[in-house]
Predict the structure.
Amino acid sequence: VNIIPIDNIGFQFTMLPLTDTITAPKVGFHGYGLFFEGAQWDTNLQLLAESAPKLLFSAAPMVWFEPKTLDAIAHPPSYTCPVYKTPDRRGVLATTGHSTNFILDIDIPTDLPQSHWVQRGVALLSQ
C-alpha cells in the first residue's frame, strides 16, 4: 500500500485528440463537455488558439485528469485556465478564497505567454 499525503497529489492534464475509440484510463478519468470562452482549441497543433471571429464559445477537447505526485507532474508551456460552473464567473466567496462558481484550474498547452490569455479573459465553462 502506497500512502501519499493529499497535499502532495495533483493532476497532470492531457488534451486528447478526437478519435472514434476512447478507452477508460487505468488511472484518473476523462472529462468532457467543457467549453472555451475567448479562445479555441487548435486540433492540428494541439494548442490553445485565438477564437474565430464572432465566436464566443467553442468546445474543448476531452481532458485526461491523471493523478500524480506533485514532483512527477510535467510543466510544459501552458496557460493555467480557470474552469467555472457558469459564464457569470461570480458567486459567493468560499472559505477557500475562491468563488463558489470556480471549479479548478486546468493547464492548457500553448505557445503564447500566460499573460496573453489572461488579458483575453480566457476560461473554461461547464455549462
